[in-house]
Amino acid sequence: MTEEKLKFAQLFLRKYDRAVGSGVCSFSQTGIGAMNFTNLCVNSDFVIDDDEIIIRACRVMKLPQEDIDLLLQLAAEGRGDE
Asked: For every residue of the chain, which 3-state class applies, written as one string?
């Protein structure tokens, strides 16, 4: 059985849940709009279309640079920017 590669929304929400759950940040601090967040939650293929929003949210969540780089790579793949 092969393991399916995580998509941007799946990985982002895992990281987000950990950060919010541990008290590192709150939703309002991330700068993610309500519509983008809703789409992340209901559509595993959804990708935030602005890398600056992704970077800001990652920094607020205190993610290491390797996680930020991976999320940006997955975002580009999801948008077809490869």
From this structure: CCCCCCCHHHHHHHHHHHHHHCCCCCHHHHCCCHHHHHHHHHCCCCCCCCHHHHHHHHHHCCCCHHHHHHHHHHHHHHHCCC
pTM across the whole model: 0.89
Distance CA 31, CA 9 (A): 16
Tell me the per-residue pLDDT of 67-76, one tens digit each, with 9 for 90 and over. Answer: 999 999 999 9
* Residue corresponding to tokens 């490869």: 82
CA distances from 73 to 25, 40, 67, 82 (A): 23, 16, 10, 8
- Name 11's Cβ contacts closer than 8 Å, sequence gap at least 6: 70, 71, 74
